[in-house]
């Protein structure tokens, strides 16, 4: 499918010169003289190498057609993660590098989306937000609840995140899986 190069968003995968490239960052520039252009930082999904490519604003690129499948996370063995298709019970093993940073938030039984290009897994998407328990943090300081400062806290999976001062150990919080940032106190 052809799309305008300036319409590409972070996470899109394009087929450029026979390579599958994922958009890591995007910037559109409109200089005072001449036409606008879009500069994209692209990562080759197979080799991991990065390139910065500049496209004219009206230039078209081919967006790769990906098929999304729902899989259930089963377990991790080192840097190999095993997922199962809940319809066919087929299991696949994926390298942690393919999942990226969000792999630290994988939980047993979690449903994820695996994007494939011609049956080759290219990306794994976790739910946008998950709920986890804070197991360790500094104690609550009275009167500091309205402050915009944050303190370090450790989650049940061992990951360290910045949390508001009014959150105490044992509190369940909502976390963004994209970057591990605090969203809110869990409502459960």
Structure overview:
With 188 residues, this protein is an all-beta fold. It folds into 3 domains: 2-63, Roll (SH3 type barrels), CATH 2.30.30; 67-125, OB fold (Dihydrolipoamide Acetyltransferase, E2P), CATH 2.40.50; 129-185, Nucleic acid-binding proteins (OB fold (Dihydrolipoamide Acetyltransferase, E2P)). It has one helix at 96-99, and strands spanning 2-4, 13-16, 19-29, 37-44, 50-56, 60-63, 67-77, 80-84, 91-95, 111-117, 120-125, 129-137, 151-155, 160-163, 172-176, 182-185. The strands form 3 sheets. It has a 6-stranded antiparallel β-sheet with strand order 1-6-2-3-4-5, with no helix packed on it. The chain has a 5-stranded antiparallel β-sheet with strand order 9-8-7-10-11.
Mean pLDDT, as a whole number? 87
Number of helices: 1
Radius of gyration over all CA atoms, rounded: 20 Å
CATH class of the largest domain: Mainly Beta
Sheet/helix structural class: mainly beta
Distance between the termini: 43 Å
Q: What kind of sheet is the major sheet?
A: 6 strands, antiparallel
Write the layout of secondary structure elements.
Layout: E1 2-4, E2 13-16, E3 19-29, E4 37-44, E5 50-56, E6 60-63, E7 67-77, E8 80-84, E9 91-95, H1 96-99, E10 111-117, E11 120-125, E12 129-137, E13 151-155, E14 160-163, E15 172-176, E16 182-185
Antiparallel strand pairs: 1-6, 2-3, 2-6, 3-4, 4-5, 7-8, 7-10, 8-9, 10-11, 12-13, 12-15, 13-14, 15-16
Task: Give a quick summary of the entry.
With 188 residues, this protein is mainly beta. It is 2% helix and 52% strand.
